[in-house]
Amino acid sequence: MPTRSETLACAAGLRAMFEAEGAALVEPPILQPADTLLELYGEDIRARAYVTSDALRGEQMLRPDFTVPVVQMHMREGAEPARYTYAGEVFRRQEHDPSRANEYIQVGYEVFDRTDPAAADAEVFALIAAGLKNLPVVPVTGDIGVLMAAVEGLNTTARRKHALMRHIWRPRRFRGLLERFAGRTPVPPTRAALLAGEAPKGAPLVGLRSAAEIDARVAALHEDAAADPISARDVDLIEVLLEVRETMPNALSRLHDLAVDLPSIAPAVARVAAREKALQARGVNTGDLIFEASYGRASMEYYDGFVFGFRAETRPDLPAIASGGRYDALTRQLGQGDEIPAVGGVMRPGLMLQLEGKV
């Protein structure tokens, strides 16, 4: 394995590359307030982060990534447009895969710019690709915004759309909800009994929900049961969308075809097409660049548009050597009413050194 000093030296070189592009160096604290991350992701974040308690500051987390604190800093005090870079440790639990590091060095580049989102996407991708040159890596891209647009365009209730949007980053749960809302799976017996009014009366309250919250939940279940199922045609079209995995020109052709039957995705597909042109302008060969409609759904929870990653050709056991994407919605969530288009990416110098053979 590379030594810490080797990894830090590689990180310094990458950071200098981003600084040469005009990025300002930022150094968010290692300890971050837990409440922000819990508000963004719910209690799920506890399974992935190290949490500690402080008598004065409340719950704190060891920094699971840099993006959230950088967005907070920019929305609080940043000028526009802005570019930032950083390098330092991040900490993530790896209880399901102990072979992966739970502490590692990350280097990143973040762009906050309203001028031309497609050009900003291409800028981040091309710079990171340049930093990885001569390494045996394969890039893959995607766009979560296309699936989001398909969900928003469904002819169903707002409550169902909200549930599907919330679980876009949990593919199994998303598919299960889609099947249930389409009437393709049976109603669980306990729910069927509740809807039929056969639930036990006067049962003691268990857990933290009040009686009013329970009544509201039961009312929501009755409302959902009365709603028409999502059409089989729309479900099939979303499944076809999720299976798109082609080189970018071919993927765009398929997406344009799908947009005829799913007109709600047309603006998102147009953004993918604009990004392809911007990538070409940056010297990226999009004819060989893979586009996966499902890419990023299992690991990139705050991204809502362009996503990308670089995989090691010779080491499928390794996580992505670099990854990133667009997170416009995150700036709205943390901006207290303000927002700005934003995109960024991170690199892992330790993994880069492993691929170079410095092990």
From TrEMBL:
Keywords, alphabetical: Glycosyltransferase, Transferase
GO cellular component: cytoplasm
One Gene Ontology term from the biological process aspect of the record: histidyl-tRNA aminoacylation
Domain Aminoacyl-transfer RNA synthetases class-II family profile: 14-214
Residues that bind L-histidine: 65-67, 92, 106, 110, 297, 302-303
GO molecular function terms noted in the UniProt entry: glycosyltransferase activity; histidine-tRNA ligase activity
Subunit structure of this chain's protein: Homodimer.
Protein name: Histidine--tRNA ligase
Organism annotation: Sulfitobacter mediterraneus
Lineage: Bacteria, Pseudomonadati, Pseudomonadota, Alphaproteobacteria, Rhodobacterales
